[in-house]
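Cross-posted from the bioinformatics board.
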Amino acid sequence: MTNTKPKVAFYWCASCGGCEEAVVDLAEKILDVVAAVDIVFWPVALDFKLKDVEAMADSSIVATFLNGAIRTSEQEEMAHLLRRKSQMLIAFGACSHLGGIPGLGNLWDRASIFHRAYQESPSTVNPEGTVPQPSCPQNGHPLTLPVFFDTVRSLDQVVEVDYYLPGCAPPAGLLAKAVQALLSGNLPPKGSVLAGDKALCEECPRKDSRPEKLTLKEFKRPHQVLIDPEKCMMAQNLICMGPATRGGCEARCINGNMPCTGCFGPTDNVRDYGGKALSAIASIIDSTDPAEIDSILAKIPDPVGLLYRYSLPASLLHRKKLEAA
Amino acid sequence: MPDGFEPKIVAFFCNWCTYLAADLAGTSRMKYAPNIRVIRTMCSGRLDPQFVLYALANGADGVLIGGCHPGDCHYQEGNYKTLRRYHLLKRLLKEYGIEEERVRLEWISAAEADKLRTAVNQLVEKVRALGPLRWCAPVEVREPSEVTLQ
């Protein structure tokens, strides 16, 4: 019997596994998906091997949903392979879309990350100072490991990407809608982010409690405030990334009474998420005195971690300056 | 420092004060370092931090931002917004490993051509001493939209 259902694949690169959960979060809707498509590759759930993918004809997979950033040579190779085998490649989730949390590794490089992980961290016992090598001889045979890059990249910095599903992780609803759109052939222009293009504030349930003119003398962190579940986060001195972040998440964090951290990334007209967020946050400081401005900003100990939590690789500067080798 | 290094500085001047100071410097035939490329914005508050990041990412060695003196902004408080953003931007750049002296904010009124000359010359000398920024995307990252400032 020939199977004529459209073929779909899922794959993961540098990610936490949360995006795989998002697929499972489809709950009973996953049965509709399985009824409509043929899942030909999904290493986290089904037993397929690399050679199965290699044996497929080019462009025989209708859509591949790839989550995770690219930080090793193996991930790069898989991105190229799946690109070749797929008609559509969808960057699934913040890491694949913008670099995500692993992208913060771009504040360091391979040597400093290896030093921390394999030598310096308090629980490490490694008197010989062994660090992973791409190849090492073992009983006369070479054993190989993927190369670990200095720089983490988003998927579209490695291969061409057709669509983006934003979020950490993308809400199941967005995925269901995307699958539907793919199956119906009713597709937005290539390169689109499959969510709205309005800032989160627009769809925020607390938007009416946002003051007309918002100015703050102090930033607080969530553990320092008993957060009022009705009132605008910014009006409670909390840094909320809503003004700079694409909506479409149904304000998940706000509804959980936590400020937005920006996982959906920028809206279509913004090139650098952190630059725009910086603009929004700094301009509401209620001071005209440079020393006072500095003391208010001192409550932001790690500007990159705040402004580029999910998007350092996709930012204009991509990473911390690499020292010349 | 490589021989013959000439810093490339992108300057964002507000329409009402610093740009006029640059005009005045010109009509007064003042001489200052020819390393700046001036971009006029209606207000220093129009300066999106993305502009500075874009300039640095695409070949600029330094950025000069010029606005009206505090209290003198044509739009009341645009320059205060610039000031706040500038302070956070400097801390951001530091985390990226970029020397903070490469980006400088100066209040220069329409009458202060001399202050403009000094600010430009000082920044150019500072950046010359720091050497080229040479920010380019890491080897594995290339974007089709990359441009080189000439």
